[in-house]
UniProtKB/TrEMBL annotation:
Highest taxon of source: Bacteria
UniProt domain Ketoreductase: residue ranges: 5-201
Pfam families recorded: adh_short
InterPro entries the UniProt entry points to: KR_dom (IPR057326), NAD(P)-bd_dom_sf (IPR036291), Peroxisomal_Beta-Oxidation (IPR051687), Sc_DH/Rdtase_CS (IPR020904), SDR_fam (IPR002347)
Protein name in UniProt: SDR family oxidoreductase
Gene3D superfamilies, per database record: NAD(P)-binding Rossmann-like Domain
Family to which the UniProt record says this protein belongs: Belongs to the short-chain dehydrogenases/reductases (SDR) family.
């Protein structure tokens, strides 16, 4: 499905990004494997993870090159795109997967913790997408696949920085889809569920907890890759501006904000009439303070 195509996958030295890069290559894509090699919190750098994935791709006859630039710097993001153009002569797909975590309850979160996560996730997706956009426009084709999260789409504890970035990515993707549709460029989001070191601290003290974790471990990063490849390929041409989620063997199309109820007052509103009329009338349609796990309540299938 990706024969003759060139793809960039950021944060591809491990986890979801690695499996997407491998799947792209198996479908015929030439792949730029980007990874800074930093820790989960974004600290340190190591060229090894990106090169290891390149070696895996080459071992089964695929073509790939490593890149260790940071997505959080615009000049470095341009170098990621130039790596594709200089190595393979073109660029057809960008998967914005790179990310870090700095979880902290909001009232304890520092400016640095908020800024670092926004820089990698939201700015990183913008910088790499913007660097690729000019080339996509010139060739009248291209596909962006961005990683969002149900932490942003729905909510979660202790992740104000991550959630803000991930919901921002949804809006960024929709804007790219609107602005670039006339150039044949598509942009979509995936909210992935996958077992990783980030959720590896779930307790397993009882047999029920152990069974639940065993079921969750079925949600391997490889489960995300088929949708990413399909959206990046020409076969996914019908999809743009959409938000999907993948949970083990399930693929969801996620809703996007739309009006659900309204109230009208011919003479206009005062603070008192808003409090006495508008809010009580709308209250029945208010959303609960749900977390992702409150919405996705069943075990993965």
């Amino acid at each position: 499905m990706m024969e003759g195509r060139v793809a960039i996958v950021t944060g591809a030295g491990g986890g979801i990004g690695r499996d997407i890069a491998l799947a792209m290559a198996r479908e015929g894509a030439k792949v730029v494997v980007n990874d800074l090699g930093a820790s989960m919190t974004g600290e340190g750098a190591d060229a090894g993870p990106a090169q290891q994935v390149v070696n895996e791709i080459r071992a089964f006859g695929g073509e790939a090159v490593a890149n260790t630039d940071s997505v959080a710097d615009p000049a470095a993001a341009n170098r990621i795109v130039m790596t594709a153009l200089e190595s393979f002569g073109r660029l057809d797909a960008v998967v914005n997967n790179a990310g870090i975590l700095r979880d902290r309850f909001f009232h304890k979160m520092s400016v640095e913790e908020f800024d670092a996560v926004i820089k990698v996730h939201l700015y990183g997706s913008y910088f790499v997408s913007r660097a690729a956009a000019t080339h996509f426009k010139e060739q009248n084709s291209g596909s962006f696949v961005h990683m969002t999260s149900t932490s942003g789409l729905i909510g979660n504890y202790g992740q104000a920085n991550y959630a803000a970035a991930k919901l921002g990515i949804m809006a960024l993707s929709k804007s790219i889809a609107l602005d670039m549709q006339k150039f044949g460029v598509r942009s979509n989001c995936i909210a992935p569920f996958a077992w990783s070191r980030m959720i590896g601290s779930i307790p397993t003290e009882t047999e029920a907890e152990k069974a639940r974790v065993d079921r969750m471990k079925q949600m391997t990063p490889a489960k995300i890759a088929p949708l990413a490849v399909a959206l990046a390929s020409d076969a996914g041409a019908m999809a743009t501006g959409q938000v999907f989620a993948v949970r083990n063997n399930e693929i969801f199309l996620m809703s996007q904000p739309r009006p659900i109820r309204s109230v009208h007052r011919g003479e206009g509103w005062t603070p008192e009439s808003v409090a006495n009329h508008a809010l009580p009338a709308l209250q029945g349609s208010f959303y609960a303070l749900d977390r992702s796990s409150d919405v996705f309540t069943w075990d993965p299938v």
